[in-house]
Structure formats: C-alpha cells, structure tokens
Amino acid sequence: MSRSEARIVPVSWKNVTLAGAFWGGRLAANRRVTLPLEYDLCRRTGRIDALRLGWKPGQPNPPHIFWDSDIAKWIEAAAYSLATHPDPELETRVDGVIELLANAQLPDGYLNSHFIAVEPDKRWSNLRDCHELYCAGHLIEAAVAYAEATGKRAFLEIMSRYADHIASVFGRGPGQKRGYCGHPEIELALVKLYRATGNRQYLEQSAYFIDERGREPHYFDLEARARGELAGRNREWHGDAYEVLQAHQPVRDQTAIEGHAVRAMYLACGMADVAAETGDAPLAEACRRLWRNMVDRRMYITGGIGSSRRGERFTFDYDLPNATAYAETCAAIGVVFWAHRMLQLEANAEYADVMERALYNGVASGVSLNGTHFFYANPLAAVPALARFENLAGHVAISRQEWFDCACCPPNVARLFASLGQYVYGQRADTAFVHLYIAGAARLEVGGRHLLLRQTTGYPWKERVRIEVLPKSGADSAKTPARFVLALRLPGWCREPEVAVNGRRVSLRDCVRQGYAYLDREWRRGDSVEVRLPMPVERILAHPEVRQDAGRLALQRGPLVYCLEEADNGPGLNGLCVPRAAKLAAIFDRKLLGGTVVIRFTARRQRVADWQGRLYQPADRAGVAPVKITAIPYCQWGNRVPGEMLVWLPAMPG
Amino acid sequence: MSRSEARIVPVSWKNVTLAGAFWGGRLAANRRVTLPLEYDLCRRTGRIDALRLGWKPGQPNPPHIFWDSDIAKWIEAAAYSLATHPDPELETRVDGVIELLANAQLPDGYLNSHFIAVEPDKRWSNLRDCHELYCAGHLIEAAVAYAEATGKRAFLEIMSRYADHIASVFGRGPGQKRGYCGHPEIELALVKLYRATGNRQYLEQSAYFIDERGREPHYFDLEARARGELAGRNREWHGDAYEVLQAHQPVRDQTAIEGHAVRAMYLACGMADVAAETGDAPLAEACRRLWRNMVDRRMYITGGIGSSRRGERFTFDYDLPNATAYAETCAAIGVVFWAHRMLQLEANAEYADVMERALYNGVASGVSLNGTHFFYANPLAAVPALARFENLAGHVAISRQEWFDCACCPPNVARLFASLGQYVYGQRADTAFVHLYIAGAARLEVGGRHLLLRQTTGYPWKERVRIEVLPKSGADSAKTPARFVLALRLPGWCREPEVAVNGRRVSLRDCVRQGYAYLDREWRRGDSVEVRLPMPVERILAHPEVRQDAGRLALQRGPLVYCLEEADNGPGLNGLCVPRAAKLAAIFDRKLLGGTVVIRFTARRQRVADWQGRLYQPADRAGVAPVKITAIPYCQWGNRVPGEMLVWLPAMPG
Fold this sequence. Notes:
The structure is a homodimer. Chain A is an alpha+beta fold.
C-alpha cells in the first residue's frame, strides 16, 4: 500500500508493550475489568440482541440509531487487546458478535441494526441526525483492527461490502446522493479501510465526504425538504446553525474549530489522514488553522474540549467554564486521535505535547482507576450542589457512572487504552521517533534495520527515562552498528531537558528541531540514552482572556495537571488560595490512589468565622489562616468519597 | 381600617416628592418617556385590544395568559404618576382602559382577557401554569392605586367584585377549590384591597392562599389529574419539583428561599403583609428565615436574585454566577417590595439596606437612563460573545431592549419608580422614619402633629444630607414645639456616620437601635438635622463559599456598586486586576452619563504580548503593566456603546 513518504508512521499497537507505574494498572484494568464489563452492558442493555434484528413494532427498547457504534468500539478494543494479550474466550465472544453482524447485513451490503429492524423505510433519509454513516465508520474501524489483530478477514470483508455500498450511494456521480454524515467518523474510518485493503476507492470516498461537507445547496436542507420538513435547522438540538455539525461552510474555508467537539475531532482526523495520504497541502493547512484555534483558544488545561453541555460543543474563543465544563471524555480522546494524526503529518512536538496533555489529564480522568466507572463530562471543578441543576442527560456528575444511555465514552476509553502503544513511537525512513515516555518496548524498522527500543522509566512520577537501543538479531547482524536517527520528544512543559547517550551529555542546541532532539549516529547493541525531564511544580496561568480563570492559577508537574479534592482538604476549596511564596513539594505517596505523586503546600484559607454569616463585606474585615493542602493529579480525582474538586485555585484578592 | 399598632406605615407616594441628581432625571424619564412608551407598546402588541374580547379561533396573536398583568402594572404606574403629576390626557387613557375592563368583566365577576376570549372552558383549570390569580392580583393592585390616586372607585369596584368571585371559588368551604396560584401575587394584592376597602374577607382570603400552599394532597396534582394529565410535574418548564413555585411544602415549613425568584418575592410580600395585619408571629418568623437565607446566601451584591436563567430561579446557597446571572429586573424589584414590607414589621435598618442595595443597583440597572430600554436579566459581567449561547427567550443580552414577549419588567420598573416616594419615609405612633436619603419632601403625621420633612442632599453622589423639620401650620400651631422621634437610618455600608441637630453632634452610641438613630426631642419649626455618611471607596469581598467571586473584589461607594465598562477601559476586562495599594479616587464627572461619580485608579493589566498566542503558561512568564482605569456605577452600565462589563475584578495571582 502506498503511503506518503513524509508521513511519520505510528509503530503499530501490535509491536509495542507498555508497563510501568502509571499505565500498568490502568491498562490491566482496561483489559481485565472494562472489556468484560462493557460486553456485559452491551448485552444487558439489548445492544447485542439488536443485531439479531428481532425487534418488532410495539416492543420496548427498540435498537437505538447509534447502538451499533458502541458494539463496534468494543470489538475494536477487544481486537487491540487480543493482539498483545491473547484470550480465546474473548476472541470467541467477538467472533459471535461478528457472526450476528454477518447475518444482519443485507444483500446490498447495508448494515445497521436500527434502520433494518426499526425504520427500514427511512434508510439514508436523514444523514443530519441519524448517525448511519457514523455507525458504519465505527464498524469499519473495528473490522480493520480485528483483521490486523487476528488475521481473520471475515469482518473486514463484511465492512468492505458495506463501504462499497456506501460508495455507490454517496458521491458526485449521476443518481448519487451528495450527502455526508451529521456526525463525522466515516471519513477517518475509510482511510483506515484503504490502508488495510489498498483499495484507493475508500480514500477517495473519504475525500469526497470531507469536501462535500458544508457546500451549497446544503445537503441537510435538501434531505429535510425531501422528508417534507422545513429546510431549516433542527432547532431542538442543534441550535441555530449547521456549525454544530461542522457543516456551516466547506471545511477548507473554516478557520475556527466549531460545534460538537467529538464530531469536530473525528472530522479533523479524517482531514489529516486524507492530507497525509494524498499530500493535499491545502487540506493539511486547513487542519493547522483549526488546530491553532483549538489549542490556543478553546482547550482546557486538561486537554478537554467542548465547553458547553448544550450541544456538547465548542462555544467561543477563551470561553472555558470550569464547574460546568462539559469536556466530554470522547472529545479528549478525539484530541489524542487528532494530535496523533497531526504528528504523522509533521514532526512537531507540540502535537505530542497536546496528545500527552489530553491523555494524562482529560482522558485518564474519564475512567476510574479500577476500570469500572466513567465520566462523560470532565469538569475542572466539582460543585456537588450544581449537579442537580446542570446534570443534563445524566452526563454531568461528580461521580463516575457505570454506563450511560448514550454510551459512547466507556468503549471509546477502552479502545484508546487497548491501542495506546501506537501513540508512543513513530518511524519515518531512517528515523525512529519517541513521542511519549512510557515504560515498555517497541519493535520497529528504520533505515532497513529491525530494532527494539526499550524504555525504563517511572514517568510521569519520575523525571528520568532510559532508552536502550537493541538492534534485533536476524539477517542484519545485531552486532553491526546501525546508522539511524533516534528522535526524542522534549516535552513543551519541560524547561531544561537533558539528554545523554551512553552517559555523555548531548548538546541539545545543535540537534533540536520543533521540539525533537535528533540523535543521528551509529547505534550499537546496548547503546542507551538517558533523558532527564526536570519536573518542578509549575504555577500555570491561563490567558488573560479566559475570564473563568482570571485571578486563579493551576498546578502542573510534568504532564500532570493537579487538583484539590475535598477528600484531602475539606470543603470550601474556593476559600483557599496559593500564596506567591508557597513551597510546593512533590512527594510520592505509595499508599494513596495506588501510588501517586501529591503536591503538598501551605495555603491560606479565608477565615469563615470572620464573616459571621455575611455574604459581602469589606476586604479589610476578612482574614486568612494558614492551612496544609494536598493536591493530587487531576486524572485521579473522584476515586474516593465524592465531594468538591478544584483545578484553578484562587489567588488572594488585594 | 385596622392596622397593627406595631406596623411602620409607609408615608404614601401621594405625600412625598422626590428630586435630586440621581432620581430627578430617572423619575422624569419614567413619567415622560416610559409611561407613554409602554402604553403604546401594550397597544401595538394587541394587549389593549385583547380586552375587547374580539379574538376568534384561528386568528393570529391570541391574548396571552398574562397580558392583563402588563396592562395592570401600566395602570398602576399611571395612577401613582397622576397623584403627584396630574395629566388629564393620561387619566383619560387610563379611564379608557378601565372601561374596557368593565365591559370585559363577566356577570359573576370573572375578568381575564385570555380565558374569556381564548379558552372559556378552561377557566380555573390550571392554576399551576396559567397565571389567572396572578393577573387578578395585578389588576387589584392597579385598582387600589387608581382609587387612591384619583378618588375614582369604578375600577376598585370591578376588582372587588372579581375578588368576591375568587373568594367564592377558592377556600376550604364545601364545594370550593382548595387552590392557589402557581405565580404568587394575589396574596399581596388582597391585603392592599383589604386596606383600601376595610373588608376583612380579603385579608382572610390572602391568608388562605398563603397557608394552603404546598399542602398535601397537592392541589397541582389534583387539578392535573382533573385535566386528565399525569399528576406529575410539568417537567418541561418547572424542573422536577414544585419548589420552583414555592409549593413544595407549606410556607411556614420552608427554610430556604427557593424557585422562581419573582414568585418567591411576591409570596414573601404577601406573607409579610398578612403577618403585619394579623400579628401572626410564626408567619413573620417564617419571613425572617427566608430573608436570612436570601440575604446571607443567595443575593448578588447588586441586590439581584434568581441566579439561573433556567426557571428564572434561585439555585443553591452561594451559587452566584456573574456572566450568566439572570437577576431579573422584576426580581430585584421584588426584593425592594419585600424589604419594604419587612421594614414595616420591624425597624431594622438591614431591611432598608437591602432595599437600597436592590434599588440603586439591580433595579436601576434594569432601565436605560433615558427610560426607553430595559434589561430583563441583569448580569454582573457582560461577555458579548456569550449572548449567542445563553440568550434564552431573548432575556439575556448585553444591550437593553425596548420590550419583551414576556413584558413583565418594563411596567414593573415604571410602577416602582412612579411610587418610589413611599419607600423613603415611614411613621409609627410618635416616630417618623427616614429610610432612604433622597432629596425631596414628605408630609406626614406623627404624635398627632402634621409635619413636613424636607431633605436636601446630593446623595448618593455626596455624603451630606440635610433634613429640615417643618411642623405644619394648621390646628396645631406651627410655632409650638412638637415632641416626636425622628428615626434616621444609618446605612450598613457606612462605617462612621455622623448626625448633628442644629449643628450639634449627636452621640450615636446612645440612640442607635438596629441601625436607626432615634432623635427624641421637642422639634421646633426650622430645626434641621445634618447627616454625614462618609463614602470612601470600599473593596468588597464575597463570602469564601461564592466560588464565582473567589480571587475577586468589587468596588462600592455608598450604596452604589461599581463596574468597569469596555467603553472606558477597552476590552479584556478580566485581564485587569486591582493592586492592594491602588488609590481609589471618587471623582464627580458632570459630563459622563448625565453626571456621575466615577472611580479612577491605576490597575495592572496582564501583558497580552507576553503570551504570544499561548493559552497556558507558567506564571513567571506573564507580566503586568500599569493601566488607568475608570469604574462607573453598575446601575449606569450599558448606556453607551455595547461591550464588556465587569463587577467582580480579578486579583493578581501569585
């Protein structure tokens, strides 16, 4: 299959093992707890049975329009897991579901449990709202992963037939519908299918979906008129613009990241993928424009995005409310997906920085440490009393939940974690990239040589990383030195990184480009690189335009954003403040939350006694008293007794 | 008519004239601009025509269920205005509307333009949602005011007949409905009707409505069942509890001020009125409990209440969002109404403090200086881009509007301003109270003597008030000294008030009780009292539990809360902060906003250049630069070019 030479190809999840203090436990929980749990929930909620197409009008619990996507993400997660952790029982389960899918598929290739069983006459009649192509996309992703993991191609063939059917229905040819999905996803899936099959038609179909989006006459208007509805917008849910669906204008004309955050991410992934495969420079440039807007103006410090619960959407520049933040887990996962694709377009460590930020904060917060419970929304402040007033659709809560009616997040976490290996390393021609520092090992091929990279590190708790370079034995003698470049990401959060090869300090001034240190040398078996990433606790400010963070600061150490929890510090967290001179001590507490680095310091607490019940009073009548504070990593919040939580800590007013 | 001896009776709006720098222009605008404008809008929108009952099914613009209340408030406002500023043209207009009402009234006394013309079969079938008794209450208030202003009793008789009808329908007698209104208002109106007519049945009917509220079996359930609906709640609008309607439990059991803020205020007014008239101490105590909760935990520094746009309601203790504050103008007016009634129960200056706070800030902000435009919501921060996402029902905006589909606020402002005189003075036995300092004069009777009090003051711009005591000539010789008590409110915001009588300083230590200085002496014609209320600019903090104000402070001078506007200070107001040592200079600017005291100081502004487009960075990389700032009174914001506004100013993070 053809790939743009310039693309930095991820090292497949099949070829990477991960371990270590931070990820070891989470990935094991994902495999052992989350995956079986989610299958069980898909079964108990009727999602599996729905594939039997047995639902009849009048019966309860009709298959929902996006149930197929939940199953698809679960299969995809299972596939990744099977590749590195064979599990015959799990494989049998997956095969069982695939058999149901095979049986459900119509002769023309169409496959959707809702529209076949519930609304057979409405197929492809409402792309704006009904998620048909979205579900198809997720099934395609699952099929590609399962084929790659197991070598079994039945599911891939099912989905190729479905993709062929889709390609026959949608396009610019005579008699075709010039449609595209209200929820992007199929675009990135078709690129995966192209890579898996080599069939360039899928790449072209993806490019069609991307470029047709937002053109006039507007397809969503046309199809609404065809349904006999007003051509206007779906005001009930979408607000007053196609912006929510990223369909307000052609994607190449869009300058700001708009609308439903998950949709925006999946669309951007598809755009980046097509740009990478076709060398479409203007499309890549459109990606960069949207990226700049998101990263510079619309992203939480946690990597979370989509600040508004209503529409699960981006709002406007610098609008980042904390207690009511939506910051859907799926959206932060989408940030990881997109950042990873931008990193394939361009070796710029900023993409890996954002990927890491989202992964260690806004994604990791989405799942409990034991893998059983999930956040849909990931606020940056937990205000227990607020949930009653703002808990739309049960998505906004101060405790993780086992499942949701709209259950997109749990299986999305599962598939990201199960495939986490592919985000760590990349390769291009004679260069091996290390994007993330996670203990483990990777098999890769650079400059025609197979090699093993082995990372030993306590990151992100500890600041040292050791990378052993082990050219693999085989046709190319393991003892022959191999000339290739090892490119190590120097995280943007780190002010004074140090790199040494075999104990000799490398002058970074000479070898750093766009945040990567390029070590170009003859590597011998046993060579080792030491990376030291000093992690003092940083006081972080948000841009002055972020009104919700004005007068506040956040604590960050390494890639981890910190928060205060009521469990450690009592209630009334907004009555605290961090003095300018406070000594912020990072301490590893092996008993807390399975072992974590806490930040301890002495803050000031407003003396509530000075208030005597008053709501307002002159500043000179309110005093403060010192108080010992413990901050924990944001990604670990909500794993103890529910209560307040706070990321942005107030400063003392003057 | 009988009144509880202990009650501090307001000096009627008929007997008070007001003038001065702050109120003179606003009251003139209310009379000359707002009143004609609102009549015209009632006419143009069909509200007047609706009273002709000519609407037929299928026609557009059916009379809305609460249109009658808009007309009622306009008549009430006109009545107050006519008493102090006779205007034959206006009186003719009012008489014309009253004639329409007379013609509309049914033989049994029923009077409601919606239910007579649009849904004649649904009369009294949905008290929860349909505002029938609410509209009746406003018409009663208007009728009482018009009779008192003009001596014409036709409208009062119409409304007495309607009240008699209501009393026949609702009560605990056989065959009566045990209902009460979803929107309180009739309760306070019936007490006014009782005071105007001396008919104690109206007082008893009010007490019935108050005490029936929230009892089980729940009337709103019973009537919903009678309508053939589920007995559950109206989830579309009311959320999940009768709490929104203050009907979740009997009012005497309620401990927190809950639900729709305007409704809560009107109900509390009725409770306080009944308590004042009947001496019902437990009911007065229930009022005090709700008051404490509101004032200590749920009121903006502007006196605005009801923080949530959804349900126009109170949420929970210390939840006071700024940019999304609802703080409906009508709700702040309700605070004035309730505070005024609490002040009748008890001479505690705290009630007058809150009344003044609401009046000078959250109410006065509701109308433009020229009287033509109105705010429905009164946020404490204007974020122009937010309106698109949060402007529910067109109520939340950064510019005042001429009118609203739900037009409660404009005529509510008009009737409050037109009757403002009654809030200034009170009398009880031998004591004359001065609650508010506003230039003007009042005729009142204390200790059997008629007297004139004349205030000369530039308040709230200036800190000195001169009160001349002028026993009136007549049966009681003007030259004979009169023994009575002059009780002067010492505002809670003032740290060091000074009072002098005829130039001799009074020792306040000896004569102050609950915030009033009681000057008990023989008063002679020409005696004068000088009150000095030093008004340094105060830095105000909110209670540490108010998360939205943490790390922020507000500026207040005298009763006025200040704000920054983009018009004076450019955009990016959240990037500013007030240094601890900033000298806050209060300066009268006679050219600005019709003459106002601004606060000038040197603040610090985050240097946006230090950010280079980044969204987050370590605190040590972000610098500040001095910048000259001008703050204006909050009540005057939005009278220039629309833009940002901010009350709570950030402090410098450390």
